[in-house]
Specification:
alpha+beta, 3-stranded antiparallel β-sheet, 60 residues
Length: 60
């Protein structure tokens, strides 16, 4: 079963939201630009990035 994560990463213009799956997470774990990662429920995994950003804002 695939686990989904909502991730804030440092982008060229500030924090950027992304959605990652556990299938591709292995290559992402060593990234230095990750600000925070949230595990998503099955219901949250279907939400858009905009909706997830409202639920899980970037930390101050």
């Amino acid at each position: 079963m695939t686990q989904w994560y909502f991730v804030w990463v440092e982008g060229p213009r500030g924090p950027e939201p992304q959605k990652w799956s556990s299938d591709g997470l292995v290559g992402q774990l060593g990234r230095q630009d990750v600000i925070v990662r949230f595990s998503l429920t099955d219901r949250e995994a279907d939400l858009s990035l905009d909706q997830l950003a409202k639920r899980h804002p970037v930390p101050e």
